[in-house]
Amino acid sequence: xxxxxxxxxSIRIRIGGxxxxxxxxxxxxxxxxxxxRLVKERVKKAVERDRRAERHVEAVSRRLWPWNERRxxxxxxxxxxxxxxxxxxxxxxxxxxxxxxGLLAGWAxxxxxxxxxxxxDMGAVFALALLAITVRSLCFKLGFRGYGRAAFVVLLVPYAxxxxxxxxxxxxxxxx
Length: 176
Prior knowledge:
The chain has 176 residues and is mainly alpha-helical. It folds into two domains: 1-53, no CATH class; 65-175, no CATH class. 75% of the residues lie in helices and 6% in strands. It has helices at residues 28-64, 69-93, 103-141, 145-175, and strands spanning 4-7, 12-15, 24-26. Helix 2 runs antiparallel to helix 3 and helix 3 (103-141) runs antiparallel to helix 4 (145-175). The chain starts with a strand and ends with a helix.
């Protein structure tokens, strides 16, 4: 006995040849392939939408940081070293009994002094830079260069700004 197959937009129904004689049986393979096709179409539309927005996101990141990414990494490293140096100066040379305000830095100073503070500061900066580089690389690998640059800038520029404010604060505390 041959089975007839009816096609609709979303599922395929096979007439005859099922467990019930003459009854309709849903073809599960057709339903699954239809569901996968729908998901694939939605993902494709989402990627197209993201591609259209990518250039705008990259333009915003270029306004935040117009130079190349290597300079941002260098700035973050320099700001971390300056923050450490000015923190040491403020705590040692000011003679006014200041204490470190950051939770992690305060703990490092209590546990191991300035050596531990240096290790914790550099470890935090290294972890943040590694995260930024990883996200950027992943976005580049997926073909989203604009989003990769934007993620890199959004992760590192705030640290550089806060570190600059900490350096200025430490200098003011040291000199006043």
